[in-house]
Structure formats: structure tokens, C-alpha cells
Amino acid sequence: MKLLHFPLAIICFFMCLNGFTQEEKKDKQFEIHTIAFYNLENLFDTVNDTTKFDERSPIMEMKADREGVYAKKVHNMARVIADIGSDVTGNSPAIIGVCEVENREVLVDVVNDPLLVGRDYGIIHYHSPDARGIDVALLYQKKLFKPISHSSHEVKIFDDRTRKRKQTRDQLLVSGELDGDLIHVIVNHWPSRSGGEARSRPKRVAAAKVSKRVVDSLQSINPYAKIFIMGDLNDDPTNDSVKKILKAERNKNKVGLKGIYNPYENMFKKSGFGTTAWRDAWSLFDQIMFTQPLLEKEDYSSFRFYKAGIYNKVYLTNKRGRWKGYPLRSFSDGGFTNGFSDHFPVYVYVIREPKG
Fold first, then answer.
1. In whole angstroms, what is the distance from residue 286 CA to residue 268 CA?
2. pTM of the predicted protein model
3. Which class would CATH give 2-352?
4. Which residue among 104, 136, 165, 356 has its CA within the 20 to 30 Å range from the CA of 250?
């Protein structure tokens, strides 16, 4: 946790809402935490699991030095996680959702990397029925976040032609206290666009409906629930799954009590701005949305949204060639690039007045 001194223009904006004097504005401080999401791009171990198709993972397809590559991949993931938000908060994320991980064991290796071990991250993970053997999970700093409950929620989708069920990632719901404030986090990795965007669209709509049901169930208990919906959605902020099913708004003023705000829609409308790229086009598949109580600005005694961003630092990007500026992925053309991921991480900052 860090006490953040905002620039004067920001302080004045916040404090004028509450009628503070000019002198009080100058000294105002806020606690700040980072909440993030990162697609770890094929974070598989080197052990062949006969219950899944992990032999198709890039690291299992390598003919030599799998252990060395795995160690580098784990360290690279830890480096990024350690860096997200640290320039503002002085800390790595209090909470970070992840996807494209094979099992709990690979996450144990990541959080025990020298760059992260001192942060003492806990792990919440369930095995999903995904055919590729990839899961979602949540990492949290034990000193900052106290889990109360967690559950896995299946997404039922079916093949267009055979009507047989196709296995995909379950969604993870974690409820707990962030420095004493109750929040809920839904971690997603929605079905891919394999076969084309239009043909695969119903699968992501089905996934969005699961997220919406989870949100509705939480809000039926408490309409003021602070809920974060994060993940690699394989859809942009303007697609039906986000706009029509979740009904996420880009305009804060239009978000009702049980509504959802998506800060990434306005970013998406900026040319050349996204979290992943394909065939010379950017997509903003990785998003963090949240419910209206996190937008309230009259009372900062509990955590409120401050700012959202895409963590696209220079070291995470290709430096030359056709893919210059694109995410520097870990694996390409059958080999290890010593890169990071084909997705940039996303994050939000939450702030509140210091307690005590």
C-alpha cells in the first residue's frame, strides 16, 4: 500500500466534491492499489499430462532445453507481474487474474520467482475442462487481500454441426476483502475466434451470459456490490457479448446502480490501441470492467476507481520488422523468443482515503 500524492489538478477535482478548503486540498492523500489481468500465453510445464493435449503446447513441441526455456518463461512472467503498477503504487498488483496456465504448479513457480517471492502471493485455481488444458486463476498478495469464498462456473457451449458439447474454460469467482473492503472478482477466458468471428460469436455470447448471471446473483444479495469482471474475452469492448449481454457502458454518467462500466471502450476507439494484434489490426480483447459503486465520488472512505490502462512498456514489444510495436510473444515459428506474451496486461487503480 502506498499513500499517493496526486497532482494538484486531480486533488482539486476530488476535494471540491466534498467541500474541502484550499489548504486541505494540498495535503490530501489516498491509498492506492493495482488490480490487473494478464494472459500468460501458454504457460505450460515440461511434464506430459496424459489427461490433456498439453503435448501440443509450444514448450512440449521443443526438441531440446525444455527445462531452460521453462525457467526463462516463468521468470519473464514474474518480471511483468512485478512491474505492473509499480511506478505509481510502489508495489506489484494486489490482485491479478491470469489465463492460459496449465495448472497450479506453474503458478507456484511464478510466485516463487525471486522477483515476486517477497510479495507472498496466494493462488486460487480450479482445473477447467478445456481441451487444451489451460485454466484461469487469481493471484493475490496475502497481506492485502483476504479471500472469503471462491467458486468455478462452467460455460456450456455446443458444436454448430454435431451439437456435441465443446469444452472451454470455466469462470472463476473470488470474493474477499481488499484491505478490509469487500470486493468480488470474476476471471474469464472466453472462447476463441477459431472458425471466424461470426461463426464463433455465439460461444462468447454464452460465456458473457454466465458472467452476467454471476453478477446478477451477487447484486441480488447486495445491489451495491463492488464487482470486477476481467479477462481475455476474445471480443472487443464494442462486440455483442460486452455491449448487449453485459450491457457495459463507456460513459460513466450512464451507469445505473446495477450497471457495469467499461473504461476500455473509449481506449478501443483510439486508432492503433489494443492488447493484441493480428494481421495488421489491433484488438482490445483484454479488459477489466466493474460495477457502479466503484464510480461513486462522494465518499472515498472505501475503494473507488481512479484510472485504467494497458501495460505496454517498450520491453514488452517487438522492436523491429513487420511486427514492430506488437506484443513480444514467447513462442514463434516453433522456437522460444525469450519474449513475454502475445497479449499486453491491463490494470486499474483503486483509491481511498487513509483509514485511521
1. 11
2. 0.92
3. alpha beta
4. 136
- 307 phi, psi to nearest 5 deg: -160, 150
The C-alpha cell 460469436 sits at 201
**For the chain, domain boundaries:** 2-352
Q: Which three cell numbers stand for residue 259?
A: 450497471
Query: What CA–CA distances, in Å, run from 203 to 130, 191, 192, 193, 306?
Result: 14, 6, 8, 9, 32
pLDDT string in tens for the chain (356-residue length): 555 544 433 333 343 334 344 444 345 789 999 999 999 999 999 987 766 655 567 888 887 888 999 999 999 999 999 999 999 999 999 999 999 999 999 999 999 999 999 999 999 999 999 888 899 999 999 999 999 999 999 998 887 777 777 789 999 999 999 999 999 999 999 999 988 999 999 999 999 999 999 999 999 999 999 999 999 999 999 999 999 999 999 999 999 999 999 999 999 988 668 999 987 889 999 999 999 999 998 889 999 999 999 999 999 999 887 888 899 999 887 789 999 999 999 999 999 999 86
